């Protein structure tokens, strides 16, 4: 544990201004943030300070060349006021995997973990306890170093902000299977949680939204033949009783929820296949009635059932089942995350 995290506390907490019974996703921010600077070839010890705007030089490379990566995590508080994280070291490792791909210097693990834990202890009162709510945590790193030369910056900032949050989606999720645009390509940055991956999705997603869909289902960039992932989630498809999800690759984010759902389903004797799945297979399954469920999985979205998908101008409704894998697995994972159930996997992490 690093002992020297300097803490400057806020003089006026904003907590009484927040309606914890009506939380949107990621739109109000807790009192403090963690900031850590990379300068002179090394990361300097993190500091905690009141949540506040940043001052950056207009030539900071984040604005021009998009060197930025982020993570998404959640903290939960149980009935005894204990605070829990879910597989946080995996987020720390993935942040560094993303950083490496974007030529951002990797962060010492202790700065991430100890910084996060100190911040959460300080802002513990901000962790909501209502069903479906949690404290969403956003660690991110970006290039603060200056200059128009198109090369990696020499200064960076690592920041962690937190936001008491409700559900990511409100209502049913209808998705559009993409036939034209791509989110990522072989050799690209799709596997990284790079800010630019999301910027590139906004335009096609807006087009889909205008047609009544909430998310795009990305397909491979080559022939748009295979189902890959959604904008903010990995995708699971249930055909008859088998749960199928695509393998991770250069193009797909290796989701922590995804791998947990796979392990949970297997431990419950649900047949799971990690394999490529074509759009044609899904459309045929929808037509012959063997397509039972589709759902997205991710930290923000947890497990979000998909009610319908659109493809080549036709909408295919998913059946409304009495009991679903999505509901069952969502309950299993959230019960583990919130300390309502045993955690045989050792995923839960006490703050
Ligand atoms: N895929 C994308 C593109 C995402 O943004 C996310 C969200 O983090 C996921 C998948 C799910 O990953 P995780 O379960 O680690 O949150
Ligand atoms: C998350 O699930 O934590 C994410 O980062 C998705 C984000 C685009 C909201």
From TrEMBL:
Its cofactor is pyridoxal 5'-phosphate. Pathway: Amino-acid biosynthesis; L-leucine biosynthesis; L-leucine from 3-methyl-2-oxobutanoate: step 4/4; Amino-acid biosynthesis; L-valine biosynthesis; L-valine from pyruvate: step 4/4; Amino-acid biosynthesis; L-isoleucine biosynthesis; L-isoleucine from 2-oxobutanoate: step 4/4. Keywords: Amino-acid biosynthesis, Aminotransferase, Branched-chain amino acid biosynthesis, Pyridoxal phosphate, Transferase. Its EC number is 2.6.1.42. It catalyses: L-isoleucine + 2-oxoglutarate = (S)-3-methyl-2-oxopentanoate + L-glutamate; L-valine + 2-oxoglutarate = 3-methyl-2-oxobutanoate + L-glutamate; L-leucine + 2-oxoglutarate = 4-methyl-2-oxopentanoate + L-glutamate. It comes from the Bacteria. SUPFAM superfamilies: D-aminoacid aminotransferase-like PLP-dependent enzymes. The modification N6-(pyridoxal phosphate)lysine is found at residue 193. GO terms for molecular function: L-isoleucine-2-oxoglutarate transaminase activity; L-leucine-2-oxoglutarate transaminase activity; L-valine-2-oxoglutarate transaminase activity. GO terms for biological process: isoleucine biosynthetic process; L-leucine biosynthetic process; L-valine biosynthetic process. Acts on leucine, isoleucine and valine. Belongs to the class-IV pyridoxal-phosphate-dependent aminotransferase family. This is Branched-chain-amino-acid aminotransferase. It comes from Hyunsoonleella pacifica.
């Amino acid at each position: 544990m690093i002992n020297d995290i300097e803490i400057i506390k806020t003089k006026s907490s904003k907590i009484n201004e927040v309606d914890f019974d009506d939380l949107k996703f990621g739109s109000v921010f807790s009192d403090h943030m963690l900031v850590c600077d990379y300068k002179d070839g090394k990361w300097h010890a993190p500091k905690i300070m009141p949540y506040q705007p940043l001052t950056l030089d207009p030539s900071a490379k984040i604005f021009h060349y998009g060197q930025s990566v982020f993570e998404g995590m959640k903290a939960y508080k149980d009935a005894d006021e204990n605070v829990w994280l879910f597989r946080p070291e995996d987020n720390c490792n993935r942040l560094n995997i993303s950083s490496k791909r974007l030529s951002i210097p990797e962060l010492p693990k202790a700065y991430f973990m100890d910084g996060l834990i100190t911040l959460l202890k300080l802002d513990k009162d901000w962790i909501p306890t209502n069903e479906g709510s949690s404290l969403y945590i956003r660690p991110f790193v970006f290039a603060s170093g200056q200059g128009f030369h198109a090369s990696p910056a020499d200064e960076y900032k690592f920041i962690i902000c937190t936001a008491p949050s409700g559900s990511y989606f409100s209502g049913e999720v209808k998705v559009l299977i993409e036939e034209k645009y791509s989110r990522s390509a072989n050799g690209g940055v799709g596997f990284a949680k790079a800010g630019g991956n999301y910027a590139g999705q906004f335009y096609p997603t807006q087009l889909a939204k205008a047609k009544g869909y909430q998310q795009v289902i990305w397909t491979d960039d080559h022939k748009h033949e295979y189902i890959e992932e959604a904008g903010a989630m990995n995708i699971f498809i249930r055909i008859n009783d088998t749960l199928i999800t695509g393998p991770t690759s250069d193009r797909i984010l290796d989701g922590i929820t995804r791998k947990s759902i796979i392990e949970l389903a297997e431990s419950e004797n649900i047949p799971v296949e990690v394999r490529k799945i074509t759009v044609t297979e899904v459309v045929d399954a929808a037509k012959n009635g063997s397509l039972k469920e589709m759902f997205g999985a991710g930290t923000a979205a947890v497990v979000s059932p998909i009610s319908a998908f659109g493809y080549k101008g036709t909408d295919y409704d998913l059946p409304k089942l009495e009991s679903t894998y999505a509901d069952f697995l969502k309950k299993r994972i959230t019960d583990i995350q919130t300390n309502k159930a045993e955690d045989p996997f050792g995923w839960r992490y006490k703050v």
